[in-house]
Amino acid sequence: LPVQSAITHPRPGAAVPAGELTVKGYAWSGGGRPVVRVDVSLDGGRTWRVARLVGERPPPERAWAWVLWELRAPVA
After folding, report:
1. Residue 75: in which H helix or E strand, if any?
2. What CATH number is given to the structural domain containing 48?
3. CA–CA gap between residue 48 and residue 40 (Å, rounded)
4. Torsion of CA 10, 16, 17, 21, to 10 degrees
5. Alpha-carbon distance 62 to 66, whole Å?
6. What does pTM read for this prediction?
7. Which of 4, 24, 28, 59 could, after both became Cys, cross-link 9 (CB 3.0–4.6 A)?
8. Could you tell me which residue ranges the Moybdenum cofactor oxidoreductase dimerisation domain spans (predicted)?
């Protein structure tokens, strides 16, 4: 399976102030493969940014576990 991901912050439809925004979420992959990268688009897919994977990475035998990620980006 391709990497699946969910955004947990900010909530859908939330108004965010201009400035730096922190987007957070989690990701997982199928077939026992680890998540090595999460790309996030803040403009409907025109451009993409690489999120930072947060915390400890699961060991190879637990690569099915969720991985937390976050992205800090400027927003207008």
Report:
1. strand 67-75
2. 2.60.40.650
3. 5
4. 30
5. 9
6. 0.84
7. 24
8. 1-75
DSSP state of 8: E
Q: What's the rounded Cα separation, in Å, for the pair 76 and 74?
A: 7
CA atoms of 58 and 60, how far apart (whole Å): 6
Q: Rg of the chain over CA atoms, in angstroms?
A: 13
According to the 3-state scheme, what is the secondary structure of 11-72? Answer: CCCCCCCCEEEEEEEEEECCCCCCCCCCEECCCCCCCCEECEEECCCCCHHHCCCCEEEEEE
Q: Which range of residues forms the domain containing residue 43?
A: 3-75
